[in-house]
Amino acid sequence: MDHTAHHQHHAHHDSGTSWRTAAQATLHCLTGCAIGEVLGMVIGTAAGLHNATTVALSIALAFVFGYALTMRGVLRAGLPLRRALRVALAADTVSIAVMEVIDNTVVVGVPGAMDAGLGQFLFWASLALSLALAFVLTTPVNRWMIGRGKGHAVVHAYH
Question: Tens-of-pLDDT digits for all 159 residues of the chain?
């Protein structure tokens, strides 16, 4: 089955995408997002950066690590670098963007969380809560996208 036929097959048969499949795709995406998000928050907080700069850094790193994890897998499947990047962009952009809106809204919205130090419970609790909510709220988005042959369905052709 060629690449296009494979996507059409997924688009046709995945309209009933399981929650398990969506949760696995979301967890994969969350892994990269969480690495970048936590790293950005830790760097920004430790360096005493302005809150807006810390959030921007966290978002940028979430996208970098999210794409990198997907690219690692498709590069192992033999795709050239440029094609792997296109697959990662197609697979992860919406998922990462939704996660970043949710988790940064939570962290910024929790009173005192952005001003808490790395040694404070509030810092880590708000970050954990934000990532958990991002997972819960992004899973239905990924389920919808996979069911239409989009998002992580694009990566499945290379597994």
Answer: 444 444 444 444 445 789 999 999 999 999 999 999 999 999 999 999 999 999 999 999 999 999 999 999 899 999 999 999 999 999 999 999 999 999 999 999 999 999 999 999 999 999 999 999 999 999 999 999 999 988 888 887 776
Q: Which of 55, 74, 67, 79 is nearest to 29 (CA)?
A: 67
CB 53 within 8 A of CB 44: yes
- Which 8-state DSSP code applies to residue 111? T
Listed residue (102, 110, 152, 108) closest to 131, CA to CA: 102
Q: How much is the pTM?
A: 0.85
Residue 38 burial (CB count, 10 A): 18
The alpha-carbon radius of gyration of the chain (Å, integer) is 17
